[in-house]
Design goal:
Length: 109
């Protein structure tokens, strides 16, 4: 019986050889992935941070589908979505504008 080998970098057991992994177990830049894709090093221009995996991208933790769905479920569970704190104590910006208008009218007198 012969064991078929794949061209995706896997050995006869179907596992990647250690030479394609770094000390953290992440694929080494330039080595091929399981589906034959090569990883591309991406860099965040503002900070200079670089990453290979999508999970390491800045902001991925709250922009992925699971986090967005979880936030939507949490919002749907709110009881008083239509109520605002401004309805009880007033809008602070609106109050400040009114106070400024009163002060200006007093100065004009």
């Amino acid at each position: 019986m012969t064991i078929p080998t794949t061209t995706s970098g896997a050995n006869a057991n179907g596992k990647r050889p250690l030479s394609t992994l770094d000390s953290n177990g992440d694929p080494v830049a330039g080595s091929s992935r399981a589906h034959g894709e090569s990883q591309q090093l991406k860099t965040h221009e503002a900070s200079g941070y670089s990453w290979l995996r999508q999970e390491d991208e800045p902001g991925w933790g709250w922009r992925n589908k699971k986090a967005v769905d979880e936030a939507a479920r949490a919002y749907d569970s709110l009881v008083y979505k239509d109520k605002r704190i401004g309805n009880r104590w007033g809008d602070p910006f609106e109050i400040a504008d009114r106070e400024l208008a009163v002060l200006r009218s007093q100065q004009e007198r």
